[in-house]
Every structure is written in C-alpha cells, then in structure tokens.
Amino acid sequence: MRGRGADAGGVRLVGTGLLPRAHRALVREAPEHAVARAVDSLLAQGFVPGAPALEAELARLAPTWTTRVVEIGDDAATWRRGLVSDVVDVVTLGLAGRFVPRKVEKTWVVVTARPTADGTDVVLAPLAGRWGQADTGGTTAKPWVDAAAGALVQAWRAGGVLLREPTTTPFVGDRDCPAYPRTFRRAQKEVRARRA
Questions:
Q1: What pLDDT score was predicted for residue 182?
Q2: Are 25 and 148 a contacting pair, CB within 8 Å?
Q3: Once rounded to an integer, what is the mean pLDDT over residues 123-151?
Q4: Nearest to 14 by CA among 69, 73, 70, 83
Q5: Fewest Cβ atoms nearer than 10 Å: which of 14, 25, 186, 195?
Q6: Which residues pair with 110 in a beta bridge?
Q7: At 13, is the secondary structure helix, strand, or coil?
C-alpha cells in the first residue's frame, strides 16, 4: 500500500547508512507560529500533512506542546527494510560509493514546540517504520528532513529570531515530548485501535 507523499522517492540521491537526526532549536516566536513555519518548510520538501487523529492523540498525551505531524514515503519500501537491505547497502557502498538512489520508506516527522523561560523550544523529529511500529533508524527520508530544517534555520536567522544554534540528536529523549519515540508509538497504537 502506497503512503501519502510516496511519489517523493526516486528523485534524489540518498545517502545510505546515514541515521536520521532530530533537530532542535530555541527561537523567539510563539509555539504555534514556529510549528506552522516548520511544517511549511517540510511541505515544501514534499511531505504531506499527517492524520488529524494522530495529531489529536499526541496533543492529548503531551498537552504542553503544540504539535503537528507530516509524512512522506511508501509503506512497501518500509516493509522491504531489514537485514538483507542493510547488507545490500553495505555492498553497494563498497561498489558504487557513498550515494545510491532508493525509494523513500514511510517516515513521519513530529513537529512540536513549547514555551520556556528562555524562548520557544522547537523540535523536528523523524520517525520511520510501519504504522504502529515507528523507530528512529535507517530512514531514507533524511535528505528531505535535513533540507527542510536547514531552510527553516536560515529563515529564523534572517528574521533575527534564532536564540540558540540548533542541535541534532539521534532521537528525542524527553519523555514528556510528543516526539519521544515511545510516546509516538503509543499515539499510533491508540489511533489504530479506534479504527479497528
């Protein structure tokens, strides 16, 4: 089954073996405005809006954060990932160099922000995997996420609202954040259970 945003695959050279990174910044903007700007940047890269039910469930689980979800990729590409795909990546890297074209696997990006005493804490966190089984590793959507985050940071700098240089981490470790992998998986499972 093809996911929304699935046609973004096959048009970029994708670096294999590069793990997705959660991007985080501190800005002088209202959380709602920061999230809207981040979502616009991701949509410009080919992402599409995520399910409203998933956003609502994340808002219920993490009410102090303003949250949106976007997605890209293909469920079928995600199902093909695994040990064999990883071995092929290693062999391909050895034969063809650093970059090979690949279909984008199903990936969600949680875009979320909250006010703090120092400014608005903004997070863009990619999570890849089948519905209800999101993880943080091996996503082929990394170039799209990084391009969106880069454009966003440039806009914040140009507007003079970037308060602290952005950081990246393998995943979001804040348990109260909707981008925390277990919180995201829980939200997916709750939405899936309601659909059943």
A1: 93
A2: no
A3: 76
A4: 73
A5: 195
A6: 69, 125
A7: coil
